[in-house]
Amino acid sequence: MSEQPQPDHRIFVSYIDKSREYYLAQGYGNPYRWAHHRDAPFCPLTRPVRESRLGLITTASIVEGDAEPEPFSLPRVVFSAPADPPPERLYTMHRSWDKEATHTDDLDSFFPIHRLQEAVRAGRLGSLSPRFYGAPTEYSQRKTREIDAPEILRLCREDAVDIAMLVPL
Amino acid sequence: MSLVARHLEQAGIPTVIVGSARDIVEQCGVPRFLFSDFPLGNPCGVPYDVEMQSAIVSMALDLLESARFPRTTVQTPFHWPNDAWRVNFMRVEGQDPEMLRRLGEERRAQQERRRIRDQ
Predict the structure, then answer these.
(1) Contacts of residue B109 in chain A, CB cutoff 8 Å?
(2) Rounded CA gap, A132 and A58, in Å?
(3) According to the model, what pLDDT value does residue B6 have?
(4) Pairwise CB contact (< 8 Å): A106 & B113
(5) Which of A82, A154, A168, B119 has the most CB atoms at less than 10 Å from its CB?
(6) How high is the pLDDT of residue B115?
(7) What are the E-state strand segments in chain B?
């Protein structure tokens, strides 16, 4: 293990701090109030992963062909789509990610559908749900809690999903 | 996404989040979190690095089985090729304040167009 310099600040980036300062500098008056809970739910697996069906959930969106829609023009609704064959691309430009440092041209860097298919073939994972699911990133936590999350749950139950992998951009 | 994970978990579907915004996810409080210390956008591995992506997916599947308590965070062993993104993303210090205000105005105009459309 190589020795690292010892900084006087935390190494991992605080997006709560960063976005607050950034949007204040952009003239937004009220800093965003991030979701905070003192407790978190926990549900142990009822069967091993190698016997479970996994649902993959993304914050990216589906668009037709090579369309490049305006970031604010897409509908903000939960969706589902066939996982096999996987989509050739997903649209990500409407999400807040580091567009200077990297890109999302490789689907599996944020939507690991081929890697999961390989895990199924290797016997590590039971199966993939026939559909994957999209949940929009919402300013309104109330909308996520009361509309989007219950809809994702409904779709997962329809597909008999046992376990879920959620990958926010 | 953290709120969706909580909702599924409460309903009996075990979840794992693979993400890079550690403070946002941990502050919300989720059952299982695999943390990639990467710029936002590629939580499942460097683009086209199939070996790394396989390892990250495998860690996420392991975490589903190995976690015994909620708020279990595991960090991947991988490093981004450089650290410049930590400072540069959403940078305010050393930036032209007027340019930042202008960006804000453009964003507010887009949001207003969407608000009118959605009415």
Answers:
(1) none
(2) 8
(3) 98
(4) no
(5) A168
(6) 83
(7) 15-19, 32-35, 72-75
**CB distance A84 to A128 below 8 Å:** yes
Task: Note the ipTM here.
Answer: 0.94
Question: What confidence score (pLDDT) does residue A71 get?
Answer: 67
Any A CB within 8 A of B52 CB:
no
Average pLDDT, chain B: 95
**Token code pair at residue A136:** 């929009």
Record the tokens describing residue A117, joined without a space.
Answer: 């298919």
Is the whole-model pTM more than 0.90? yes
d(CA A39, CA A165): 20
What the block records as the tokens of A150 is 């219950």
Tokens at residue A8, please?
């006087």
CA pair distance B54, B76, nearest whole angstrom: 12
Interface of B with A in 66-85 (CB under 8 A): 67-71, 80, 84-85
Residue A1 has a pLDDT of 56
In chain B, the largest separation of any two C-alpha atoms, in whole Å, equals 50
Please classify residue A74 by burial: count the beta carbons closer than 10 Å to its beta carbon, then call 0-12 exposed, 13-18 middle and 19+ buried: middle
Question: A107 — contact with chain B (CB < 8 Å)?
Answer: no
Residue B74, strand partner residues = B34
CB–CB of B25/B36 below 8 Å?
no
Describe the crossing of helices B97-118 and A15-25 by its angle, rounded to 10 degrees: 90
Contact call for B19 and A148, based on CB within 8 A:
no
Question: Is the peptide bond between A44 and the residue preceding it cis, with omega within 30 degrees of 0?
Answer: no
**Closest among B81, B76, B42 to B56, alpha carbons compared:** B76
Q: Is the pLDDT of residue B67 over 60?
A: yes
- CA B87, CA A9: separation in Å to the nearest integer? 12
Which residue stretches of chain A have pLDDT < 50? Answer: none
